[in-house]
Design a protein that fits this description.
Elements (H helix, E strand, L loop, with lengths): L9 E4 H4 E4 L3 E2 L4 E4 L1 H4 L7 E2 L2 E4 L4 E4 L8 E3 L4 E3 L3 E6 L5 H9 L2 H6 L11 H6 L1 E4 L2 H43 L10 E5 L4 E6 L7 E2 L5 E3 L4 E2 L2 E2 L5 E3 L1 H9 L9 E4 L7 E3 L7 E2 L3 E6 L6 H9 L1 H9 L11 H6 L1 E5 L2 H43 L14 H13 L1
Parallel strand pairs: 4-9, 15-21
Antiparallel strand pairs: 1-11, 2-10, 3-6, 4-5, 6-9, 7-8, 7-10, 12-23, 13-22, 14-18, 15-18, 16-17, 19-20, 19-22
């Protein structure tokens, strides 16, 4: 707690001005179920026959799941999803001011969730968070100022996100042009199926070995492939015995191999340009190109060519898990220059352009992070009384707090 409060401010806890409420149940209705996915616009609402009633103007807070502590505004009548509780605010506080206070503690809520299988909002922590309460008029001024500043930042973030998307599209265009012969002049093109230009095409383990907390033997799945590399930091590990068995079964990639994800998220690619002991799951295909025909570096980019990927995606089968089977993958065609130095020239032209895109993307990401930090800085100033000027004519918050206590007593 700070030693000196701003003029007219007082100290209280979040639970003094805001309650988590179970709401009132209703029965025999036909109302939309206002669950997380619907409120985020990710699906159509299903119809509920009973549950806790929500009305336009209500607020709910997520109390179950990874994003516990997130607030949603309700704009229609419906039934509350099971992972929410209603937020009930005192009549003597500015709702937007208190909502911003809750949002400023999102990181704290994530770090102090309770429960194991399904994390829950720490309700005790929620209620006891310290709140420095300004006079009511000042709360309104602070909330309006935060809203104004956040709007400017969000406009900037929108432009930055568009820039990220443009960089992504630029990379796709570079790849498309490269394999259409528009980046450099190619003397003779050839086209062959993957199997014809490879020494080996197989996939990883078709059973899931027992994982251990940590070992020298990583076990790589689709989720560990990101931006053309393998994330060994967050992967699973297996025992030496299981690793040895899987290595015998051909599930260990070699230097120069190219990994291609064929189950679930089809089309993630990684070139193994390093020496390391690890094995892969069956969701990853291991492609060992014939270096006398196609260089590994060229194949890596050829497999990420949007035209090739579109053909691969059109070949997916399955219902629960969409995948491209190994036999089909082997039959997909790859276009390549017959002259290997020309293959290398294409790789160099792609990487030269990608290097520029990477630098621009780095600057964009840095500015996105700065914008997020700026939001936190604004919130910090707001709740320390340094965002808007005080007005000595405002009714002190100590009187406000007494009214709140009387309200709660009733």
């Amino acid at each position: 707690m700070q030693n000196k409060l701003p003029q007219g401010w007082t100290e209280c806890e979040l639970g003094d001005v805001c309650n988590l409420d179970n709401g009132s149940k209703i029965y025999n209705v036909n109302l939309p179920l206002l669950d997380v996915k619907y409120l985020r616009g990710k699906k159509e609402a299903s119809i509920a026959k009973q549950g806790v009633l929500l009305n336009n103007g209500d607020f709910v807070i997520l109390v179950d799941g990874e994003n516990s502590g997130e607030i949603f505004s309700i704009y229609e009548q419906g039934v509350m999803g099971s992972t929410f509780k209603k937020l009930i605010f005192s009549d003597y506080v500015n709702v937007d001011f208190v909502k911003f206070k809750i949002k400023s503690k999102q990181k704290m809520f994530k770090l102090h969730k309770v429960g194991s299988a399904i994390p829950h909002l720490n309700k005790k922590l929620f209620k006891t968070i310290q709140l420095l309460l300004p006079p009511l008029n000042e709360q309104k001024r602070i909330a309006e100022k935060i809203e104004s500043e956040f709007k400017k930042i969000d406009e900037g973030l929108e432009h930055l996100e568009k820039a990220k998307e443009q960089i992504k599209q630029y990379r796709q265009s570079v790849l498309k042009f490269a394999f259409e012969g528009k980046l450099c002049k190619i003397s003779v093109w050839q086209e062959s199926d993957l199997e014809s230009i490879s020494k080996k095409i197989t996939d990883g383990s078709h059973f899931s070995p027992k994982t251990v907390e940590k070992s020298n033997y990583p076990y790589i799945t689709v989720k560990d492939l990101s931006n053309g590399t393998i994330d060994f930091e967050n992967c699973k590990f297996i025992t030496f015995e299981d690793y040895t068995e899987l290595e015998k079964n051909g599930c260990k990639p070699q230097q120069g191999d190219v990994l291609f994800s064929k189950d679930g998220t089809v089309g993630k690619v990684s070139l193994i340009d390093f020496s390391k002991n690890f094995v892969v799951l069956s969701s990853l295909a291991i492609i060992r190109p014939n270096q006398d025909v196609v260089k590994s570096e060229y194949l890596k980019y050829a497999l990420t060519n949007p035209d090739f990927l579109q053909i691969a995606l059109n070949k997916k089968t399955g219902v629960a898990i969409r995948r491209i089977i190994l036999r089909t993958l082997k039959q997909l065609k790859i276009r390549y220059p017959k002259n290997k130095p020309e293959q290398q020239k294409i790789v160099e032209e792609i990487e030269k352009r990608f290097a520029v895109a990477n630098e621009v993307e780095k600057v964009v990401e840095e500015n996105i992070e700065k914008a997020k930090q700026l939001k936190q800085s604004i919130l910090k100033k707001a709740f320390e009384g340094r965002l808007v000027p005080q007005d000595p004519k405002d009714e002190p918050a100590s009187i406000l707090l007494e009214k709140i206590k009387q309200e709660r007593g009733k």
